[in-house]
């Protein structure tokens, strides 16, 4: 099944994504001269010498708890079965039947060993309605409790954790199993001892606002094995943006519903926007039960 036909085959997923509150174009990598390249090189040197990031449940015990909200429960499966418009018994195996093909569904960058460390989809993984629903819920919840600005230590973002967004969380638990994990297994499986052990440890919606908020995120590395971000609003709604990677000295841009996925050890940053607003959904993914491998892989990539 091709990714572009995914939405047609998942009516049971979309039908469960209803909020209880009021209420696509492919762009290749571009060099962004305004991003502080020299500053990034200094940051890269400093990060190598002074910063240790832990990327597994063994080293970050909080991950054992933070991953739980993103795991499908038996109750979730029962609700999905009730809304399954295609009939037949719905199982985790059926949910994971989605497949992806390199150079057709996604483009790969930064070669490493037998694979690549960075990928971007060529077509959306979320449709426009799904993306807008996530933005709407985030803005509604933010109007009640405000956006957080200090959850991520030295590199905070203006964001809301997905555990504060009940409808988005409900939707994403299925989307992870049905769309995102199969994509990550296709892209990074050659590096991983057991790709089926991928688990989301942290997820959040980020808001960049050129007029009155955070405009960029300085170069950094994430404390996980893999990272991804999904564009929630059209690229036509802002100027600039994208994810900057030191290995490319360029920003990778995507449009609404598309996803950038990469090794968390790659030095990267949120390229600044100069107008408009940019919304993304970010995920940090760990590999359960493989702490030594996770640290070894992370350090191999960061030392490239």
From TrEMBL:
The keyword Metal-binding appears for this protein: yes
Key words of the record: Dioxygenase, Iron, Metal-binding, Oxidoreductase
GO molecular function: dioxygenase activity; iron ion binding; L-ascorbic acid binding; oxidoreductase activity, acting on paired donors, with incorporation or reduction of molecular oxygen
InterPro entries for the chain: Oxoglu/Fe-dep_dioxygenase_dom, Pro_4_hyd_alph
Cofactor(s) the record lists: L-ascorbate
Domain Fe2OG dioxygenase: 194-287
Parts of the chain that traverse the membrane: none
Name of the protein in its database record: Fe2OG dioxygenase domain-containing protein
């Amino acid at each position: 099944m091709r990714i572009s036909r995914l939405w047609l085959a998942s009516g049971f997923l979309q039908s469960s994504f209803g909020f209880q509150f009021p209420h696509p174009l492919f762009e290749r990598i571009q060099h962004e001269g305004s991003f502080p390249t020299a500053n990034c090189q200094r940051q890269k040197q400093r990060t190598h010498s002074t910063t240790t990031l832990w990327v597994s449940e063994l080293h970050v015990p909080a991950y054992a708890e933070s991953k739980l909200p993103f795991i499908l429960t038996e109750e979730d499966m029962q609700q999905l079965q009730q809304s399954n418009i295609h009939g037949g018994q719905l199982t985790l195996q059926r949910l994971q039947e989605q497949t992806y093909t390199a150079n057709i569904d996604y483009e790969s960058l930064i070669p490493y060993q037998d694979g690549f460390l960075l990928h971007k989809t060529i077509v959306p993984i979320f449709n426009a309605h799904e993306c807008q629903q996530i933005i709407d819920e985030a803005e509604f919840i933010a109007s009640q409790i405000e956006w957080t600005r200090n959850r991520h230590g030295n590199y905070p973002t203006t964001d809301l954790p997905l555990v504060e967004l009940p409808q988005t969380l409900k939707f994403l638990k299925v989307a992870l199993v049905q769309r995102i994990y199969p994509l990550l297994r296709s892209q990074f499986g050659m590096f991983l001892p057991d790709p089926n052990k991928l688990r989301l440890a942290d997820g959040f919606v980020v808001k960049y606002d050129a007029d009155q908020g955070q405009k960029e995120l300085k170069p950094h590395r994430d404390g996980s094995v893999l990272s991804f971000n999904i564009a929630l609003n059209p690229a036509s709604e802002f100027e600039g943006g994208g994810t900057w990677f030191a290995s490319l000295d360029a920003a990778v841009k995507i449009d609404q519903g598309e996803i950038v996925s990469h090794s968390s050890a790659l030095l990267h940053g949120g390229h600044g926007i100069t107008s408009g607003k940019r919304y993304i959904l970010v995920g940090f993914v760990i590999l359960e039960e493989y702490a030594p491998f996770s640290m070894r892989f992370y350090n191999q990539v960061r030392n490239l």
